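Subject: Sanity check before I submit

Could someone independently write out the structure tokens for this chain? I want to compare against mine line by line before I put it in a report. The sequence has 550 residues.
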Amino acid sequence: MLSRTEPVKILVVDDEEIMLKLACDALRTQGHQVIGSSGALEALDKLKGEKFDFILTDIKMPEMDGMELIQSAHRIDPSMGAIFMTGYASLDTAKRAIQEGAYDYILKPFDLQEIRSAVARAIQKRNQNIKDGREKGLSQLFDLNRILYTAGDCRSLLKLSLEFALVQGRLRGGMILYWPASTGELLILHTENPGQNLFTEVSIEIDEGLVAESSSVKDILHIERPDQYPLFSRLRDLVSDSSLADALPKADDEAILIPLRKAESTCGTIVLKKTSRGQKLSEEDLKLLAILGIQTAISLENLTLLIETERSYQELQNLQEQIIGLEKMATQGRISAEIGHELNNYLTVIMGNFQILDMKIKKGEMQSLKKQLEPISSNLEKIKSFTEGLLDFSTMKAKKAECDINELISKTLAFVKPQNVFKNIIFLTQLKPNVPRVSVDSGQIQQVLYNLLNNAADAMGKRKGEGGNITVGTDCPPEGQPLEIWVSDTGRGMSEEELGKVFTAGFTTKESGHGIGLSICRKIIESHQGTIQVESRLNEGTTFRIRLPL
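---
Independent answer below. Compare away.
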């Protein structure tokens, strides 16, 4: 905050040499650091190279009037205070001055005390504005974690943190560097326009040694030479984006580094480029920026844990839906008990760890959450493995529409042929032309066909690299009779005993089968008011016949 003990840096602009000297001398006697400029264009050049607290400018000038100058100056530094002076006062110029955020409006001719008083009032007003802004900024900082959960991604959080740091430091340019744990990548976000959401972004690979060296910064660091920070000496070679490379602190630049650090772990740093040498931030600013670095690091870790937890929870929900479907479709208590018992073992471990996760999150014990995520992930994989090969039974209600059954079969065969499980299988078709269209749920009928084709490949030793022929055909029925689809293979066939059990839930001839697939196929066909039958003899192959009403 500006005070009497800290000199205020003021740029005075007037094309009249006498008025310019008078204003500069009057303000220097008050202890202010004053630089004069005899024209607007010269003033803009000075503004691009130096940081000023205020600009005191005449309104009527030949190259550019004072209003336009302030507009251009605020594009360079929006925080700069403005004071106007003019010998051509009017209601219109006063209104325009207010619109440009002027702190005061001085009429020429003026005495020395008048201009000193105007600047003193402007400093007081600006101090109050800065104080109000910082109180608002502190409130934003406290809300950072809540904003995180609505933003929901790391990049939004990083941009928010960088913008906040630039506003608090009253600086225009900076970047934020973030290296997530164990990724080997460095994400860089850079902006010269805080508040306008204009960022340059690049992600590059960096080695662990460089990360470890860069992570050694524990406190806010003020560097006068970029090569004092190990990461800068390498970034220029690593970054291919020329605009971003140009934005890196150069040899004669000063910069402030704010580590994103939680406990003993540093995951990144905020880099604020200083616009002029000797420019200092107050203790209040530095404390606030240190808090920002800590809050950002905590929020990034929490966000990572939240994303992992949500992903695991979503997988659990998907698996629970499959389990519910299995329970609904299980026609025998033995199968239901068998599936329920197996899955319940996994779910007990998962739900127990989710409860512990919930308690730890409420207590703020974020460090040890990974201990619960590991068993959750492991048991989700076990459930996934267990349910492989089982059909999703939750969509048994048919959504029927008219369908060309020959076209549906052709599409299904085109889908399965490239799959490894059908390697060494020759597909044949005997599709009768002009087959009547039928009203079916095409997705469910494809599910039945896929299951029958898969069983046929199994019967011909697909797991052992053997092969054979699978023939799919349709028969055009006499008037009033159902349409017939048949799937025939040249596999090992079935005995009479196996034929009697083939549609029984729980019966299987596969080593790793669950005996549910064919019972579900029958339920799908029956939901279409159709029938499915099987014909087979040992070593002579098997044929399944499906009949669907027109």
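---
OP: Matches mine. For the report I'm noting this point. The two ends are 85 Å apart (CA to CA).
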